[in-house]
Amino acid sequence: MFSPLDTRMMARALQLARRGRFRAAPNPHVGCVLVREGAVIGEGTTQPAGGHHAEVEALAMAGDARGATAYVTLEPCSHHGKTGPCAEALIAAGVVRVVAAMEDPNPRVAGGGLSKLREAGIAVDCGLLQSEAEEVIPGFIARMRRGRGRVRAKLAMSLDGRTAMASGESQWITGPAARQDVQRLRAASCAIVTGVGTVLADNCSLTVRREQLDASSLAQEAGQRQPLRVVLDSALQTPAGANILSADAPTLLCHTAGAGVESHLLPVDRAELPVAATGMDLSALMSLLATRQCNEILVESGPRLAGAMLQAGLLDELIVYMAPVLMGSSANPLLHLPLDSMAQKVALKVVDVRQVGSDWRFTLAPE
Ligand code: AOF
Ligand code: ZN
Question: What positions does the entry give for substrate binding (predicted)?
């Protein structure tokens, strides 16, 4: 069904798709290549939300796409959303074949785009480089298929497994390269979740800082968009003037019933969450973030929230930066897990290990 040319063109479309990773959310970032007689005549990447889908960009570049084959990393849409249906645009342009890497998991599309194309007499093949395409948009797929985005926790520790001194002092454990890496993680996230304890201890901003991103224009553009900062603040204790309330990014304070609202918090976006056995209901938080269309969720918190997320089965990945330093203190473990026997130990699968500057980065998934 697929030729070597097909594979080469889909690989190119995947490259184009990845270019949208800092900008397209809440849309999935998609790539499209139009090919006629073996030559590329148009290329496109999903534009920031409300903007053109990848197919429309590629058709605009081609001008005349009659007789072309379209390679797309996601099934062309069939619905009228913020933009018109791409399937209809491809039909109108006279494309003769569409090769898609995967079906759109969005229930509003879900095969509807492919059948619309087939009904119009276009040859349609789906499934080329599917697992690669799924790896490009894990957050969107997770939100569509299970109703909650992909959740990763970022943690930094010393060689002896400490995340802060007993005093709470923690800046900086890792070096500049690891911190730049974290900036890229933030830039690719829709929401960054933390606890009020971290806000009080670190006065963190949790924004994307353009000057710390690498020099590529892609990374620089990412700085324009700021993820939603989410603070688990059950009693609404975030102080006036906290960096987390700065005007350069949106903030959502999640509290429990009966929290008194200080006047300085009145203009801040807030949501009430139910209480579960061990604190705020984290699963309800994830559903709330799904209704806000968050595909990629990053938890940047202390050991307690990260431990609670892991124990609630809500973490898809842990990203742990380990600095070759010794902090010595016996306080502040990487994650707070109330375990007391070896039989209870939490096993993780190592997805990736690499050196980032002078530090090591481990990507781990709960088994
Ligand atoms: C495509 N090509 O490049 C993308 C698609 O609200 P809208 O109109 O922007 O539609 C968003 C939905 O379209 C999104 O949830 C997903 O199902 C699909 N994304 N489809 O044909 C694209 N990004
Ligand atoms: Zn579309």
Answer: 170, 186, 206, 209, 300
* Residue 55 annotated in active site: yes
Query: What 3 state SS string does the chain have?
Result: CCCHHHHHHHHHHHHHHHCCCCCCCCCCCCEEEEEECCEEEEEEECCCCCCCCHHHHHHHHHCCCCCCEEEECCCCCCCCCCCCCHHHHHHHHCCCEEEECCCCCCCCCCCHHHHHHHHCCCEEEECCCHHHHHHHCHHHHHHHHHCCCEEEEEEEEECCCCCCCCCCCCCCCCCHHHHHHHHHHHHCCCEEEEEHHHHHHHCCCCCCCHHHCCCCHHHHHHCCCCCEEEEECCCCCCCCCCHHHCCCCCEEEEECCCCCCCHHHCCCEEEECCEECCEECHHHHHHHHHHCCCCEEEECCCHHHHHHHHHCCCCCEEEEEEECCCCCCCCCCCCCCCCCCHHHCCCEEEEEEEEECCEEEEEEEEC
28 lines ligand 1 (CB under 6 A): yes
What's the pLDDT score for residue 313? 95
Task: Say how many Å lie between the CA of residue 4 and the centre of ligand 1.
Answer: 28
| Stretch 119-144: mean pLDDT | 98
**Which residue of the set 43, 55, 57, 75 is catalytic?**
55
Find out whether the beta carbon of 345 lies less than 6 Å from any atom of ligand 1: no
The whole-model pTM stands at 0.93
Conformational region of residue 322, where left means phi above 0, alpha means psi within -120 to 50, and beta covers everything else: beta
Q: Which atom of ligand 1 is nearest to the CA of 53?
A: 3
Residue 1 identity: M
pLDDT value of residue 252: 98
Decide whether any atom of ligand 1 lies within 6 Å of the 170 Cβ: no
Q: Please tell me if the CB atom of residue 76 comes closer than 6 angstroms to any atom of ligand 1.
A: yes
ipTM of the complex: 0.92
Q: How far apart are CA 252 and CA 190, in angstroms?
A: 12
Domains, the chain: 4-136 (3.40.140.10), 147-366 (3.40.430.10)
- pLDDT, tens digit, 9 for 90 and up, residues 247-266: 999 999 999 998 988 989 89
